[in-house]
Amino acid sequence: MKKSLVLLALLVLAFSPTLGAQVGLPGGPVGQQGGGFTGPGLASSSVADALKLRDDSYVILKGNIVRHLGKEKFLFRDLTGEITVEIDNDKWRGQNVSPETTVEIRGEIDKDWNSVEVEVDQIAIVK
User: Fold this and answer.
1) Short-list 101, 107, 127, 100, CA closest to 47
2) 94 or 19, which is more confident?
3) For position 125, what pLDDT does the model report?
4) How far apart are CA 105 and CA 97, in angstroms?
5) Number of folded domains in the chain?
6) What is the rounded distance in angstroms from the CA atom of residue 8 to the CA atom of residue 27?
7) Buried-state track 5-20, b at ≥16 Cβ within 10 A, e below 16
8) 85, 105 in Cβ contact below 8 A?
9) 61 and 28 housed in the same domain
10) Which of 105, 102, 99 lies closest to 127, judged by CA?
11) What is the DSSP letter of 105?
12) Does one domain contain both 30 and 82?
């Protein structure tokens, strides 16, 4: 019984906001947010570059979705070429896109034996 009470007391102290923050545990001071990287990020790629990348490489492409190919597959085009992109329904986030709409897509290269696609994580209209 004493051991479980001591263990419970230690857990409460470890996860309390002040002590937890001092030892680097979750539950730090309320309202204080952690930092992150503020330097340069990934640069945009072109379709021509994306077609040469390895499987699972992350890409950012700017261009137009020009045609629906069926199910969740679309044809994406920029000034350097075309590539098939797979966009799950939840990735649209209520955005309506036409072939004239310039978009930025972020996703991963998905290579099979005879095809290269981008599996889209995010899509945003470029203004």
Assistant:
1) 107
2) 94
3) 96
4) 12
5) 2
6) 17
7) eeeeeeeeeeeeeeeb
8) yes
9) no
10) 102
11) E
12) no
